[in-house]
Amino acid sequence: MKADFPPGWAELLDRQAQVVSRRQALAHGLTADAVENRLRSRRWHVVHRGVYATFTGDVGREALLWAAVLRAGPGAALSHQTAAELVGLSDTPSEVIHLTVPLDRHPGPVRGVVVHRSVRIGSATHPAQLPPRTWVEETVLDLVQTAVSLDAACGWLSRAVGRRLTTAARLGRALDDRAKMRWRADLKTILADVRDGAHSLLEHRYIRDVERAHGLPAAKRQVKTVVRSRTRFLDNLYAEARLAVELDGQIAPPAEERWADVRRDNAHAAVGILTLRYSWADVTLRPCEVAQEVASVLRERGAAPAVHRCGANCTVALVPTRTRMIVTGSPQKSAVNWSRS
Fold it and tell me: Are 219 and 273 contacting, i.e. CB atoms less than 8 angstroms apart?
């Protein structure tokens, strides 16, 4: 069949996952009757109005994406969750296909497609990637703009940099290029934390709600250590006190991961680095308790953090207290109690 068409037809079909628009077919020499004949004989079938799959059988994901772009017309580009899927920012296909068209374009309802309109889509579209899609920085900021909360927005920023899809600096420049953006000041602060090594939403929450809110010193982030020829990384290291704070966002990490964490903590303990570990619930629900514990350990190990309370109901003790351990009971059976003096 391809041999019946002018040069460029086969390349067009290969580039577009064997999906073509009616306009493209006519431009390559097919008559309207020839298009209708292929549809009637079921050699082609309609995906969207004026967009055809030039094969039989199921339409795969790439073909569906091309069909959506072709249905929306020139200047359309995949965006938001769908662009995130294509660059590896999202791990699963979006339930509906998201694409953005120029502000003056009104393609009308498209089945299974959410159509966004933007005056910036021309500059926001990557010049070479196919199917057409927004730059990764534009994709991230689109998702930030539509996020349900600042935490969710932070998650997109952290994931994009943590997966090495972009950098905090490039995201910052893209943010500056947008005239309107929710949470602009907060996003700049988050990007500064990401640039300094906060690779997850939990790490940012620790910096914001535990460290910064209570006046704790800023730890060094993502610190590389080499112990017995093994390279490891610490989420947070208070170098002066040789204290590491590790953060685990998983509700129940697999057993092999827990044992790997134990081995890493033991290796660091052997060279004098104490490790405190906190979960998502610790940081988000009990940040004052976490701050108190970190401050106490810093003091016990020679640092002198000038902590303050984060609010009227904060439980952090402003006056340093010493913690002593009391062991009670017989040598065969004892109990350990903690008290403050």
Answer: no
Whether residue 110 contacts residue 127, with contact meaning beta carbons closer than 8 Å, is answered with no
pLDDT in tens, 36-72: 999 999 999 999 999 999 999 899 999 999 999 999 9
Going by their DSSP bridges, the two strands 77-78 and 97-102 should be labelled as: antiparallel
**Please, which contacts does 11-17 make with residues 24 or more away whose CB atoms are closer than 8 Å?**
13/54, 15/130, 16/66, 16/70, 16/131, 17/60, 17/62, 17/63, 17/65, 17/66
Give the CATH superfamily of 214-316.
Answer: VSR Endonuclease (3.40.960.10)
Residue among 312, 275, 272, 299 nearest 217 (CA) = 299
**Strand intervals (E) in the chain:** 19-21, 45-48, 51-53, 77-78, 97-102, 113-118, 220-227, 230-238, 243-248, 274-279, 323-329, 334-340
Q: Which of 250, 240, 195, 197 is nearest to 216 (CA)?
A: 240
**Cα(312)–Cα(297) distance, rounded to whole angstroms?**
24
3-state secondary structure of 168: helix
Q: In this predicted model, what pLDDT tens digit does every residue of 78-112 receive, in sequence order?
A: 999 999 999 999 999 999 999 999 999 888 889 99
Rounded CA-CA distance 169/191 in Å is 8
What pLDDT is attached to residue 332?
52
- Could you state, in order of their start, the residue ranges of all structural domains in the chain? 1-134, 136-195, 214-316
CA neighbor of 204 nearest in space, from 235, 177, 244? 235
- 215-251 per-position pLDDT tens digit: 999 999 988 888 888 888 889 999 999 999 999 866 5
Closest CA to 320 of 301, 285, 339, 292: 292
φ, ψ for residue 257 (rounded to 5)? Answer: -70, -40
Cα→Cα distances 218→2, 6, 295, Å: 64, 65, 12
Task: Specify the pTM.
Answer: 0.76
- State how far the Cα of 244 lies from the Cα of 266, in Å rounded to an integer: 12
Q: What is the DSSP letter of 211?
A: I
Q: Are 105 and 73 in contact (CB under 8 A)?
A: yes
- The type of residue at 233 is F
The dihedral through the CA atoms of 272, 288, 201, 219 has a sign that is negative
